[in-house]
Design brief:
Layout: E1 11-17, H1 24-33, E2 41-46, H2 51-62, E3 65-72, E4 81-87
Family: Belongs to the sulfur carrier protein TusA family.
Domain UPF0033: 15-39
Pfam families: TusA
Length: 89
């Protein structure tokens, strides 16, 4: 995403979807969003590279705002990770 994140952004809930392949990160996000109020932010951490496109499509289909997708490159034995930040509609 192009807009910088506000420094006071509050992440209400975080989902660890590391090691899960499509569609599980999306399904976990969908479930977690039901626990949030409108405007609250969910962070999903995934290691599936396809999750970047998946979360872009998910946000468009559901109307939840995709605030950012932040990649942490692989390092040593640790695979690359993506943090997806969604604001509930």
């Amino acid at each position: 995403m192009t807009d910088p994140l506000p420094p006071d952004l509050v992440i209400k809930k975080e989902v660890d979807a590391r090691g899960l392949m499509c569609p599980l990160p999306i399904l976990r996000a969908k479930k977690a969003l039901t626990d949030l109020q409108s405007g609250e932010v969910l962070k999903v951490i995934a290691t599936d590279g396809g999750s970047v496109r998946d979360f872009q499509a998910f946000a468009k289909q559901t109307g939840n705002a995709l605030l950012a997708q932040i990649e942490t490159p692989a390092s040593g034995d640790r695979p690359a990770e993506w943090a997806h930040l969604l604001r509930r509609r």
